[in-house]
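Data availability (excerpt). The following record was deposited with the supplementary files.
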Amino acid sequence: MAIGLRHNKHAAKKTASRLRRQIRVRKKINGTAERPRLVVSKSSKHLFAQVIDDVAGVTLVSASTMESDLRGAEANKTDKAKTVGGLLADRAKAAGIDSVVFDRAGNKYHGRIAALADAAREGGLGF
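Predicted structure:
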């Protein structure tokens, strides 16, 4: 039973640390109409990406693994992240967005986060 309690404390500490990093970074970066903020959120199963204009307070473009065509896909999470990045880049280009500020929301830049970012760059988004 002690192992379970220790694990929960560790998970809570990791979450609190990520939220502190997120707040620290959010002080420095802001999305504008010319250069909106690309924020990536993740859960254990899914990945969500939004392009946000912080001045107007609106989401301009979004993509996630919760969409019907990606949800049923037989691929690992990293491959789905690449697909989300490409899809987000296509939607952003269609909306007239060429350049964004990348916000990883306190997550480490590796794995699914890096895969999404690389796919968005290959799709034509600049950051």
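Summary of structural features: The longest helix spans residues 2-26.
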